[in-house]
What we know:
Number of strands: 13
CATH topology: Lipocalin
CATH architecture: Beta Barrel
Largest sheet: 8 strands, antiparallel, barrel
Amino acid sequence: MVANAARAFLTSKAARPDGQTTTTALLNLERRAKQQRLSIPAASLLGTWRLCFSAGKQAKFQSGEPVGSGFYIPKLAIARITFARNDESSEHSLTVKNELQIGPLTVHFTGPVRYPGKQNLLVFDFTHLQIRCFGIKVYSGKVGKRDTQAFVDTAISKLPFFAFFVATDDYIAARGRGGGLAIWINEHPH
């Protein structure tokens, strides 16, 4: 079902499963990943992924039944996340770039990532911001209070994170620290 939602978003030809059906499928995948103690290697997350679906923190199981619904991200608002290796010698030295594009305006947040592998938890922090309008850089500078070294020393409990529970060549899915669920698609699958 999640694969169908991702494919439908990408092609615009197939009918999209509704928000509640997709949210329920995500909840079931998340539950199964926890039960099976699924381990997702960092290499599975590398690349650029486009946000296609989001469900708020109300998406959960309550008394054994799924509750909550999500929505597809409008195609006019392009939100991408990129995970890349910082150092070829280490699988765990990664960077993140979060990009939002609306019309001629593009906002990029970048920063370091930690992926200890436990519970498929990817911890990150944004340390740099760049804003472009019509391709022209209008701002570039540091954001936040931490630098990269402070990030390394900061407890995971104090940082934003994604707990991934699915990673395929076509899409990835995770729950964020705020409790919401998301699906990102690979716009250029191999």
